[in-house]
Amino acid sequence: MHHPQITPKFTPEITPSVEELQAQERRLVFPRFTHDDAWALGLLLVELARERQAPLAIDIHRAGQQLFHAALPGSTPDNDAWVSRKRRVVERYGASSYLVGARFRAKGTTFEESSRLDPDRYAAHGGSFPINVENVGIIGAVTVSGLPQLQDHRFVVEALEQFLQG
């Protein structure tokens, strides 16, 4: 029986190392990030999610303003709550939500045990990635929620790679 592919073209069993995650962030930097860029990136994320029948909530924030949001079939209000919690981790730590969680795991602990942050407001689970602009720094985040956390992370990375190559 054939099932539609709902995840990016990666081997899900392989957990990326902290070094690999940091390399993604060094590589995925924007020359600029405008309202039009947010719209175009958001549409790309929606298109990829629809192709894979992925039940995602998609969010793009810049400087505290929501520039794009979409809720695809199968997503729920709970996904929006996860989006907010993951985005707050990017805003606080200046790194992807998955990388922040991986750094805690690499130290033999968890974000929930050791960050001292309210888990109802912060979630170091994959799916939120910083919008880093050359010569400016991190100005926002691209976030998805609806798949297992590593798939959420990889989905955003794949979309950013496509967008930045375009």
Automatic annotation (TrEMBL):
SUPFAM superfamilies: GlcG-like (SSF143744). Signal peptide: none annotated. InterPro entries: PduO/GlcC-like, PduO/GlcC-like_sf, YBR137W-like. Pfam families: HbpS-like (PF03928). Belongs to the UPF0303 family. This is UPF0303 protein AQJ66_19800.
